[in-house]
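Backbone geometry:
***
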Amino acid sequence: MTIKILGAVAAALPLLAQAQSASEIETLLERCSALGDPSTRLACYDALARKAPLASTPAPANAAPGSQPSPASVIGPAVAAARADAAPTAMAAVQQAEPEKELSRMVQRWELDQPSKRGVFTFRPHRDTYLLLTNYSNGTNDGPFKDFTPAGLKSQHVELSYQLSFKMKLMEEIANSPFDLWFAYTQQSFWQAYNRSASSPFRETNYQPELMAVVPLNFGVGEARLRYLNFGLVHQSNGQTSTLSRSWNRLYAEVGGEFGEHFNATFRLWKRLDNAKSDNDNIDINDFMGNSDLRVAYRNAGHEYSVLARRNLHTKHGFVQLGWSFPLRDNLKGYLQGASGYGQSLIDYNYAQMSIGAGVLIEF
């Protein structure tokens, strides 16, 4: 068994050597890993590892009768043979295993076609999941805490922040329609981890569950393609009481699209539901958080550059967040994030600040 595994690995090496750059190698592997159907994904990996037969590999002259060849004696001839024979065959098989010439990342993440379907109750990524080990802000919003307790909170400019986000499909092709029903959850926390004098409290945590009905789209012009339409119901709150409480509920519609293999964008428009003035601790949140957002990302060779933007056209209040992730190892990436404007968190919805942070991002 060990000999067979080593032989398969050896045969895959020339295929990777054939790629002109590291980005081409990553593209081949990413296309295999993103395939939703397990059998299709395995066929893609098998094509990468397709090898020339090892039976014709001559045994060393000094080998004892009936002895097994060593891994080194197998790998050497296998690599040489695969360079001449196996690489073109494996490359052709990879191309056959690809369901389409351009693999859509958005299609895979939302399971928008049959090859990408993974059934229900399978965890998938939603928003970014990251940890900013240091997140520096040019201002500290301590006002709300002074109203809550006489001692208040003397927060530091540097804190640790993180975001966890996932989604799962609850129902597939509801009532024989093209709609899938998804549940998603996103949690964002701002932790005064380095504020020892204040016992390192969590300054703010936002909880955001949502339900989404998603229908696939596939039309456009040239390389620009609309991929899906999403109708959602989202609740967001910070789980606090009294004057620290912040929450709102929204209905939204979101459309997602791609331009070629590298650009993707989503635009979301929402309507707040809890607009009554009675028992509402952030009635003016729309003035600062707006009623729409735009997310744009460019991805190439393992690097991703992203922009999130919000703006209220009437009050001129807005928010922009820039991100850059880059490869470290496997699914772990380095991550830099910069932000400016209102609403970095719910407690800061009416407070403007600029921040910059560095840490890691986990890509599923």
